Amino acid sequence: MGPEIYVDILGDALLLVIVLVSAIILPSLAVGLIVAVFQAATSINEQTLSFLPRLIVTLLSLIFGGHWLLQKIMDYTIRLIASIPSVII
C-alpha cells in the first residue's frame, strides 16, 4: 500500500467531476455560441436572449441526463467503498 492508491482514487474522482460537469456545461456552451453568433449577425443586444436559452438547455440536460449522472456517481461510490479494505491494509 503506497501513495499511488490515493493518487488513483483522487484521479478517478477528478475525472468523474470533469465528465459530469462537461455533460452539463457543453450543451449550454454550444447554445450560447449559437445565440452569440445570431446576436452578432442581427445586432440584437438583448441580455435575456443569451441567458434564457442557456438556462433552458442546462435544465434540460439535467433532466434528461440526471439518471446517467446519478448512476456514474453511484458507480464511483460503490467502487470507492469496495476499495476500502485495500486502502486500510
From TrEMBL:
<keyword id="KW-0282">Flagellum</keyword>
<dbReference type="Pfam" id="PF01313">
    <property type="entry name" value="Bac_export_3"/>
</dbReference>
<comment type="similarity">
    <text>Belongs to the FliQ/MopD/SpaQ family.</text>
</comment>
<keyword id="KW-0472">Membrane</keyword>
<keyword id="KW-0975">Bacterial flagellum</keyword>
<dbReference type="InterPro" id="IPR006305">
    <property type="entry name" value="FliQ"/>
</dbReference>
<dbReference type="InterPro" id="IPR002191">
    <property type="entry name" value="Bac_export_3"/>
</dbReference>
<keyword id="KW-1133">Transmembrane helix</keyword>
<feature type="transmembrane region" description="Helical">
    <location>
        <begin position="51"/>
        <end position="70"/>
    </location>
</feature>
<keyword id="KW-0966">Cell projection</keyword>
<comment type="function">
    <text>Role in flagellar biosynthesis.</text>
</comment>
<keyword id="KW-0969">Cilium</keyword>
<keyword id="KW-1003">Cell membrane</keyword>
<keyword id="KW-0812">Transmembrane</keyword>
<protein>
    <recommendedName>
        <fullName>Flagellar biosynthetic protein FliQ</fullName>
    </recommendedName>
</protein>
<feature type="transmembrane region" description="Helical">
    <location>
        <begin position="12"/>
        <end position="39"/>
    </location>
</feature>
